[in-house]
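Design review, sub-item: ligand-bound model
Attendees: FS, YL, KQ
YL presented the inputs for the magnesium ion complex:
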Amino acid sequence: MKIKSAEFVMSNSEVAKCPKNNLPEYAFIGRSNVGKSSLINMLMQRKSLAKTSGRPGKTQLINHFLINGNWFLVDLPGYGYARVSKKAKKTFQKFITNYFEKREQLVLAFVLIDCRHEPQPIDLEFMQYLDEQQIPFHIAFTKADKLKPNALQRNIEAYEQKLLETWEEMPLYFVTSSSHDTGRDEMLAYINTINEQ
Ligand code: GTP
Ligand code: MG
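KQ shared the predicted structure:
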């Protein structure tokens, strides 16, 4: 898919205030610092469309980006970031779950997983939650540039083993690196296929 335009539309914390039109949207979710905002920038080939930071907790609202005038990418705050206050965490979590439970335009979520880490309970729980809510999701392994190919392969296989304890098959996944544009063509082609259905 060719990206002709990518524009920031709005940030907010309330689903009721999200864009009213009926365009399909794809949400990026995962732990803080996993690379959600960076992946959006990489897919759009725009350095700072979504704000990124080396410090976890950068994205704090629901951010809508309108792509090619007819679909949205949604950048969300991360979950599981220990350094924000308990109260702030609760507020975040509430509007994240509100978003997933109420946003009718949501087509599917990409759950981002740092490929360097072993399966973490918080990510597995979040995938389980999406499943319970009947929200389709796929996985995007991030920061693939940080591992040698063998180690990457090993980690993905370990992840697969873990997920097969809960699901009958491995969810569709993409291997990405925002610094090397890895996975860009695959993810955009996939979104294009869904948009055309
Ligand atoms: P929050 O908004 O805090 O939840 O974080 P986020 O998931 O949006 O992460 P963000 O995109 O801000 O990236 C976090 C850090 O990881 C930044 O320092 C990025 O430069 C770095 N990063 C993101 N993706 C990659 C990648 O593919 N490779 C490498 N090497 N670094 C990455
Ligand atoms: Mg972010």
